[in-house]
C-alpha cells in the first residue's frame, strides 16, 4: 500500500513528495496492526547511489507476491531524496546540501531541517531500520554493514543476518552524529547502514543478496515465514585493522587484481599510468595480507586519491 509520508511546495512550481510502500500481514487492515514489529527499509538519501532502487523494487515485489508469509510491518522508502534521485545529484537540489548531514533535523528550521525532523518522527516507532547506500562514483565496495563501535554490542548480531561479506565496526571518532543512522540508534531504533556496489550503477547480484538478507533478518525476528536462501558468514572487523592505499601521484589507474579478492603483502593492486609518456608512474602495492573490500572504480586519480582498502588477515 503506497502512502505519502510528507509533501510540501518548493520554488518554481516544484513539489517535494516522499512516499513509502507499506506491507502488513494478509487479512489485517491498516488500522489494525498494533503490537506488530516494524522494519523500515530506507534508500535514496544520496541521489547518486542507485543500488537501493533495485533492492526496494525486489523487496516490494517479493512481499507483494507472498503477503501470507508476513507477520509484521515492512515499510519501504525508495527515495528520501527524490529530487536527488531524479537528477542523479548526491545532495538535495536547490539547497545544495548532503541530506545525511542534517539529522535529527529541526522542526523550526529551514525546509530540509524540517523534513529531517519529520522523517525522524516517521521512523521513531519502528523496531529496526536498514539505511541502504552504495559507494560513490569513484569506488566499488563489497556488500557490508558499517556499525558505530558504541552500538556494536546491540547491532552486530543483526548485521550478520544480512548476507553481507563484511561488518565494519567504526571507531567513534569516525562516526558523524548528523546521520540518519546515528540519530535513530540514539533513540533506540536498531539501525544498520548497508553499503555495496558503486555510485550511479546497479550491481544486481549484490542487490539480490541484500534482499535475501533482509528477509533473513525478518525471519529471525518472526516477521517472515517464507523461504530464505542460506546466508554467508560475515567477517567482523572487531579485532582487525583496515589498511588504506592512496595514490602518490596523478594519472590513470588500472587495477591489477580483482575486487573482493584476498591479497598478500607486496601484491600489486594496480598501476597508475602516464598516457602521454607511455610510462608506469606508480605501482600501488598492498602492505598487508587480507581482504580487498574497496577498490578504485574511476580511473582518473590525483595525488592522495583513495585506491583501495584492505581488511588485514586475523593474526
From TrEMBL:
Hydrolase among keywords: yes
GO molecular-function term, one example from the UniProt record: metal ion binding
Obligatory cofactor(s): Zn(2+)
Keyword Hydrolase: yes
Gene3D superfamilies: Zn peptidases
Xref: Pfam families: AstE_AspA_cat (PF24827)
Keyword annotations: Hydrolase, Metal-binding, Zinc
Stored InterPro entries: AstE_AspA_cat, N-alpha-Ac-DABA_deacetylase
Record-linked SUPFAM superfamilies: Zn-dependent exopeptidases
Start and end residues of each Succinylglutamate desuccinylase/Aspartoacylase catalytic domain: 37-219
PANTHER family, alphabetized: BLL3975 PROTEIN (PTHR37326:SF1)
Record-given protein name: Succinylglutamate desuccinylase
Species per Swiss-Prot/TrEMBL record: Turicimonas muris
Amino acid at each position: 500500500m503506497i502512502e505519502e509520508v510528507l509533501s510540501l511546495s518548493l520554488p518554481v512550481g516544484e513539489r517535494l513528495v516522499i512516499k513509502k510502500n507499506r506491507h502488513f500481514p494478509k487479512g489485517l487492515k491498516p488500522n489494525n496492526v498494533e503490537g506488530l514489529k516494524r522494519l523500515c527499509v530506507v534508500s535514496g538519501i544520496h541521489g547518486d547511489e542507485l543500488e537501493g532502487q533495485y533492492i526496494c523494487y525486489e523487496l516490494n515485489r517479493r512481499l507483494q507476491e507472498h503477503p501470507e508469509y508476513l507477520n509484521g510491518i515492512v515499510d519501504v522508502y525508495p527515495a528520501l531524496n527524490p529530487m536527488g534521485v531524479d537528477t542523479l545529484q548526491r545532495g538535495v537540489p536547490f539547497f545544495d546540501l548532503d541530506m545525511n548531514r542534517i539529522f535529527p533535523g529541526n522542526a523550526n528550521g529551514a525546509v530540509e531541517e524540517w523534513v529531517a525532523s519529520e522523517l525522524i518522527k516517521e521512523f521513531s516507532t519502528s523496531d529496526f531500520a536498514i539505511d541502504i547506500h552504495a559507494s560513490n562514483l569513484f569506488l566499488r565496495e563489497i556488500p557490508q554493514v558499517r556499525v558505530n563501535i558504541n552500538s556494536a554490542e546491540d547491532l552486530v548480531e543483526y548485521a550478520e543476518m544480512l548476507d553481507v561479506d563484511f561488518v565494519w565496526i567504526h571507531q567513534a571518532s569516525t562516526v558523524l552524529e548528523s546521520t540518519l543512522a546515528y540519530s535513530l540508534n540514539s533513540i533506540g531504533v536498531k539501525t544498520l547502514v548497508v553499503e555495496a556496489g558503486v555510485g550511479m550503477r546497479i550491481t544486481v547480484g549484490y542487490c539480490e543478496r541484500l534482499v535475501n538478507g533482509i528477509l533473513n533478518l525478518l525471519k529471525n525476528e518472526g516477521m517472515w515465514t517464507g523461504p530464505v536462501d542460506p546466508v554467508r558468514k560475515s567477517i567482523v572487523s572487531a579485532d582487525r585493522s583496515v589498511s588504506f592505499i592512496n595514490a602518490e601521484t596523478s594519472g590513470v589507474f588500472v587495477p591489477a587484481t580483482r575486487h573482493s579478492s584476498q591479497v598478500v603483502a607486496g601484491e600489486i593492486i594496480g598501476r597508475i599510468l602516464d598516457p602521454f609518456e607511455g610510462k608506469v608512474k606508480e605501482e600501488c602495492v598492498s602492505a598487508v595480507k587480507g581482504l580487498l573490500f574497496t577498490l578504485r572504480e574511476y580511473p582518473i586519480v590525483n595525488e592522495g586519491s583513495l585506491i583501495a582498502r584492505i581488511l588485514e588477515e586475523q593474526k
